[in-house]
Specification:
By secondary structure, this protein is mainly beta. Helix content is 0%, strand content 52%. The protein is globular.
């Protein structure tokens, strides 16, 4: 089941640039199961009217070209709940993370 997150009232800012997602045990680079594309993790500050939450979001494909502090658009953000023993967490995945278009000065 895909649990899509409504991001219409959320702004996102890059907290840490993209890093390859790797298997913590083997060090092997992780790949998307459907596409075989390389997975990347980007730390984002998600801001809304209630405050700021720092989340790590996984995207598949080429390395996202992002800089710290850059405002970005997150497309098709989904929450992926998981449990490992007594630990319950939520992982985040997105179709893409792209820089917001710069506003032109008039």
């Amino acid at each position: 089941m895909r649990l899509l997150v409504d991001t219409s009232q959320v702004s996102f800012e890059v907290g840490r640039t993209a890093e390859l997602k790797t298997n913590r045990t083997t060090g092997e680079v992780m790949r998307d199961k459907r596409t075989g594309l390389t997975q990347w993790v980007v730390q984002l500050a998600a801001k809304d009217a209630t405050g700021i939450e720092v989340i790590n979001v996984t995207v598949a494909g080429e390395e996202p070209r992002l800089t710290v502090g850059q405002t970005v658009q997150v497309r098709s953000l989904e929450a992926v709940p998981w449990v490992n023993g007594d630990r319950a967490r939520v992982a985040y995945r997105a179709e893409s993370i792209t820089p917001m278009a710069a506003k032109s000065a008039a």
